[in-house]
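Support request, priority: normal
Reporter: lab tech (M.K.)
Component: structure prediction queue

Hi team, I submitted a job for non-specific serine/threonine protein kinase from Stieleria varia yesterday, and the status page still shows it as pending. I've pasted the exact input below so you can check whether something in the sequence is tripping the parser. The sequence length should be 502 residues. Please let me know if I need to resubmit or if it's stuck on your end.
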Amino acid sequence: MKCNASLLQALVQQSIDPGDDAEAIAGHLETCVRCQQTLTELGGDKQWWNDARDWLSIAPDDVMPSAQCCPLPPIDLSFLETPTHPEMLGRIGRYEVESVLGRGGMGVVLRAYDSDLHRSVAIKVLAPEWAASIPARQRFAREAQAAASVAHENVIPIYNVAADATLPYLVMRYVPGMTLQRWVTTHGPPDVASILRIAGQLAEGLAAAHRRGLVHRDIKPGNVMVGENIDRIWLTDFGLARAADSVTLTQTGIIAGTPNYMSPEQARGENVDHQSDLFSLGCLLYFLATGRPPFESENTLAVLHRIVTDDAQPLAMHRQDLPPAFTRLVHRLLHRQRSKRPADCEAVISELGVAQMQLDAGRTARVPFTKRTRRLLWAGGLVACIGLIVAMSPLQTLDPNRDSNGDDGRRISAGNRDGNRQTRPQAIQVSPYINQAASQIENAAWLDSRQLQIRIEKVDALVNRMKQAEPTDAVPGMQLSNQQWRNEINRLEHLIRLSQQR
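Reply from support: The job had stalled in the queue. We restarted it manually and it finished. Here are the results:
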């Protein structure tokens, strides 16, 4: 048996009975990768390939009408004309249809060959159930007009449009690869360099649309095509794009877009502008870095509620290798107030440039803290410092043979009362401050930044004095080796630096 796409289409739609040819067809399907792929595309998922093969191998009486598996219905390609070559699925206009690339709620996308210009193209066809709808036709025509008006290397170009056909279709450049959604789902989040490259190209393509006065309104990973090595991306699907001053859909109360990537104003059904696209871009970049959208819940309404009321989890909680400028940019894009987001795509591109410089310099983001959390962290750091200093302070008195300069047995003797009087005042100078600080530190979370900074500077000075001391078994609770002691000092210094930076 030879490959025959038309026969496979009829088998999937169960419009013919294979009869005596069933065994031969089933045997061919077992070994022909191309026909297996064709069945997968026609059926919409792998389950349809299994169903078609099983249907060929069993008698009609064995088919159970109450099958528990409910796969997606097969794609209806009956609108295609008879193909010129049997290996093709059919023909639409001058284009020979080779395969099905995908489908969505409003239509199907086909891969075809342009016999006049000798190039592969992608054809988006409006589904038959939508073709009778005037608003759907208008939206389809609007997509063609919007996409055709944006000429940019990161936007898929439109070659042709047949808005008046029985089933309207538009012809666009065929991009080998997959959607960004599928790529991340398959491979996981990419490395930081790839994230910044993709983000920059997305912002460039979106900026081109905004310069034309368009608002895309459906920025999401499924509307971004990527090359095999994700070295280049293309923005596609302008089906919801509208002029920035158009409010037709929002006036009717229709919410258009993909819930997980909607802006708060879009979720509320309000008029949207380019700032809405920037919020959606932030959602997309969050997904790109983490593999999950920033707002998830059990159903659409719950997602919309979270978008309107909640803040996204800090990006640095999911990844610690991202440049600080990138995490800051993403959270600015995700701000619920439009005025708090970047002004435009050019500002986004500028911030991405800063992130690239930070990546080159090896800087990464830290987990951000709220104001109260920062104060509690400072308090914890100070408590740790004070605890060690309190334990260390008896060193000034328990070792009478060591002075502050480290000269043993020269200035102080065991029976020298004057020497003891010289040593004890040092301990007295330190201990009252430590006791006072220890009592005040309980309220450190409520101190203002200036007071905390003063406290940090004083403790920092005491830590410097710790460096001059040595761990000793003579002090209770200080059973530390030299290396452990130095590690504690280093840790405290790090906490102080962190507090100063915050």
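The mean pLDDT is 73. The two ends are 72 Å apart (CA to CA). Let us know if anything else looks off. Ticket resolved.
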